[in-house]
Amino acid sequence: xxxxxxxxxxxxxxxxxxxxxxxxxxxxxxxxxxxxxxxxxxxxxxxxxxxxxxxxxxxxxxxxxxxxxxxxxxxxxxxxxxxxxxxxxxxxxxxxxxxxxxxxxxxxxxxxxxxxxxxxxxxxxx
Length: 126
Fold this sequence. Notes:
It is a single chain. A four-stranded antiparallel β-sheet has the order 3-4-6-5. A two-stranded antiparallel sheet has the order 1-2. It is of the alpha+beta class and 126 residues long. The relative contact order is 0.17. The mean pLDDT is 81. The chain has one domain (4-123): 2-Layer Sandwich (Gyrase A, domain 2). The protein has helices at residues 47-58, 63-69, 98-123, and strands at 4-5, 10-11, 18-23, 28-36, 74-82, 87-95.
């Protein structure tokens, strides 16, 4: 059964799957991973937070840059929130070590989310 979303005009069968292009002659690899953002629309109260988080992660010398680019795992990394599509897209460009670049990006995002949860809990303790 195909899961089709008429709003975004796309199917969600491959969402979360990883598409990678490995070019051994150039010793580089490229990765694109899309994840679906649930309850995401321009009217949602979560939209601004998602966009700010994605932009923070995406800035040069930001968390993804420091953990993926500076160690030399990849040349460039980006995280984009597409509200109209309802997706969050991670892209890794020209990876010398694709597995390490992906693991560093994933761990960076996990650590950031955990730290945000801890911060919110501390700020709103009664």
